[in-house]
Amino acid sequence: MYKIAVAGTGYVGLVAGVCFAEMGHQVTCVDINQAKVELMKSGVSPIYEAGLQDLMVKNYESGNLKYTTDYQTAYKEADAIFIGVGTPEQPDGSANLSYIATVARQIAESVEKDCLVVVKSTVPVGTNDKVEQFIQDFLVNDVRVEVASNPEFLAQGSAVHDTLHAERVIIGTESKWAEELLQAIYKPFNLPIVSVNRRSAEMIKYASNDFLALKISYMNDIANLCELVGADIQDVAKGMSFDERIGSKFLNAGIGFGGSCFPKDTKALDYLAKQNGYELKTVQAAIDVNKEQKTMLYKKASRRFITFNGLKVAVLGLTFKPGTDDLREAASLENVPLLLEQGANIYAFDPVGAENFAKVHPEGPHGRGNITYVSTVEKAIKDANACFIFTEWGEVKAVTPSMYKELMRTPLVYDGRNIYSVSEMQQAQVEYHSIGRKAVERQNAKESNGRELQSARY
Ligand code: NAD
């Protein structure tokens, strides 16, 4: 078993550290955020991920797992140091490598024995070469330090499962020593390992993420056309999915991709291509389609209403997907400000993301609008004039079509996740607009109209 240090305790670093400990390695998780370290020591996970907190407690108690801000002690004796710090997007689309550089420098100044530095963060092709050079430049002691690439493919919401049961582990190395050490570290996981050179490993990460982003944008593009020509995107996706060359996953049309990876990784690869004098037209298209898609429902609703001013608008789901409290690049972050600007009284529900969202949009008035956070879907939709679904949480999927009809002032739903069947919404007399499918227009116009006039005054 090996002594492992992990730099950064975000979704990637913490989950990797916990899973290495679970496999029997001696792991020290390092973060610069003291409050986060204290929280983890007290047995509380700073992020929401199924199963994570239990494994943290178990391995902390067994002594396999430690948390610290003292990077020197953690790095000086490690056999391998995994880097899992952020590589956020910069205004020009390129990846910000300053956090990686800081860790590289800290490693160079701390290591006292031969060690392998493993970059888990998503970094542009060629970065590992630079990290190795950077460490050599600043190295204080006469020890061997090599850099390997080991990109991460976990999905937020199932991060622990994805790590323990990864479909593949990619290791990118430039020496037999590095390759064998990484293989030995991963041996207890008993997973398929693909061993390539460093630059190919870096590229596999971007190529994989951007391919998935492309698949999503392609389906969204087709969905928008389906609406115009009277086809149904879910039937179309089903028909496509039987073709093994296409596959059945990532064929759901919706309100666009978000999260901490697809948006920034598409832009970073596009940037890298441009830097190398190449135009990556497919990825560029995926970015453009996604940008439009994010506010697709708002645009539909804006055509339906004269104004949102004074209307009660339910927002169901704030996170970029279910199973996480992460809001990065979530559709809600684009749509809620637009609705608030138009004077909507928003009642937002999210089972775990509301607290984070309230840090950006605190409860209360915002310009002409107002936002209130509620603890149940029912409170959000009660007497609402319109409802937007941005995240397909179980709690949201549990709402039956008839509940919208019964509870809302105007049963009008804009569904960014295609949760409901069009015919069920029609039967329940709910006006229903989703993505790539026939809209259920307002029924019983007389009653509905009367209610709308009332609600406009409300
Ligand atoms: P994150 O922002 O959640 O966490 C980064 C952590 O690093 C923070 O806790 C921060 O305090 C810490 N940190 C910053 N500087 C540090 C330093 N010098 N020493 C120690 N800790 C330091 O990031 P994340 O979402 O885990 O992503 C990390 C990387 O992994 C990114 O490159 C990302 O693209 C990639 N990735 C993310 C996911 C995902 O689903 N989130 C999946 C695959 C790959």
Describe the protein in words.
The protein has 20 helices and 15 strands. By secondary structure, it is α/β, with parallel strands linked by helices. The protein has three domains: 3-196, NAD(P)-binding Rossmann-like Domain (Rossmann fold, 3-Layer(aba) Sandwich); 205-288, N-(1-d-carboxylethyl)-l-norvaline Dehydrogenase, domain 2 (Orthogonal Bundle); 296-445, Rossmann fold. The strands form three sheets. It has a seven-stranded mixed β-sheet. A six-stranded parallel β-sheet has the order 3-2-1-4-5-6, sandwiched between helices. The radius of gyration is 24 Å and the shape is globular. The model is unreliable at 445-458 (pLDDT under 50). Bound molecules: nicotinamide-adenine-dinucleotide. The site of nicotinamide-adenine-dinucleotide has 26 residues, from helix 1 and helix 5.
Helix content: 40-55%
Termini separation:
66 Å
Average pLDDT over all residues: 95
Largest sheet: 7 strands, mixed
Count the helices. How many?
20
Hetero groups bound?
nicotinamide-adenine-dinucleotide
What percentage of the residues does DSSP assign to strands (E)? 5-15%
| Number of strand elements | 15
Radius of gyration: 24 Å
CATH class category label of the largest domain? Alpha Beta
* Poorly predicted segments: 445-458
